[in-house]
Amino acid sequence: WDAYVKEHELLQENSVLFGDVITLQERKSCLENLCDLLSQNLHQIESTVEIGERLYSSTSPECRETIR
């Protein structure tokens, strides 16, 4: 949770659209890093959900949607 809060704070800090070129480039770089982190974390979440769906062979399709 703390990591999520920190990432959210970084997003807020870097979402300001004015400043000199160097500052804007630094913000852009930071936002790109945050996007990469998000992509990696989404992959982990999707993998966890898929593993959870296969946990029990008797899980019905309706329950799989509940898990998702």
From TrEMBL:
Top-rank taxon: Eukaryota
Q: What is this protein called?
A: Nesprin-1
The species this protein was found in: Parasteatoda tepidariorum (Common house spider)
Q: What is the lineage of its organism?
A: Eukaryota, Metazoa, Ecdysozoa, Arthropoda, Chelicerata
